[in-house]
Amino acid sequence: MTPFRSRTLRWLAAVALLAGILVLTRSLWLTALGRFLVESQEPFSAEMVVVLAGDDTGHRILKGAELVRQGYAPKVLVSGPECCYGSHESDLAIPFAVQQGCSQEWFIPLPHSARSTLEEARLVLRELESRHVRRFLLVTSDFHTARAARVYRRLAPPGSFRVVAASSPDFSAGGWWHSREGRKQFLIEWIKTVAYWFGI
Asked: What angle do CA 103, 75, 112 make, to 5 degrees?
């Protein structure tokens, strides 16, 4: 056997071994990658709940309403970018929450045209400042919490907010790879996370 062929076989054996290890331990490292996207904190007493846009299931706004019901804050600021058929997301989310038994008085719509979490954060924080809100609870889907927390820590005063996760019907850190929608959410959020790291 030539030295070149011997090296090639050793390289292939190492690749096969690595592939086998990755397959056997996939639940561990896939879970770790999922958990990296999630950062959720215990809520504290605040002046406002902020529900971020990007949810078409209603889980985010219902989580925000739950925090009001539990007495953590009196109002929910509902971020509402332009979404579909000439409507803002807040135009759809608030009536949905009211249909689920929430009080219309809890919600404050914030229509806007932001297209990223960073643009949205600048608008939200400007609105909170105009309302003299110093402490707020930031509600978003679990897979979006870590990135949202990084964005708001960059812009908001230290200690002014806590991130509270709303559950997603298709994503869980320990099993996102079992469903098509879970895999899509995981991949899209990781792409956005990496893009944020590189400032793009």
From this structure: 100
Domain assignment of residue 36, yes or no: no
pLDDT tens digits, one per residue of 114-152: 999 999 999 999 999 999 999 999 999 999 999 999 999
pTM score: 0.88
Domain-embedded: residue 109: yes
pLDDT at residue 86 greater than cutoff 80: yes
Assess whether pLDDT exceeds 90 at residue 106.
Answer: yes
| Residue 78 covered by a domain | yes
What domain range includes position 146?
48-197
Instruction: Tell me if 21 is assigned to some domain.
Output: no
- pLDDT tens digit sequence for 2-19: 665 666 656 665 566 565
Q: Are 161 and 136 in contact (CB under 8 A)?
A: yes
E strand spans, the chain: 48-51, 76-84, 87-88, 107-112, 136-141, 161-166
Positive or negative: CA dihedral 23, 167, 148, 38: negative
Phi, psi (deg, nearest 5) at residue 62: -70, -35
CATH number of the domain enclosing 55: 3.40.50.620
At residue 154 the predicted structure's pLDDT band, cuts being 50, 70 and 90, is: very high
Torsion of CA 78, 79, 82, 84, to 10 degrees: -50
Count of structural domains, the chain: 1
- CA nearest 189: which of 59, 72, 28, 38? 38
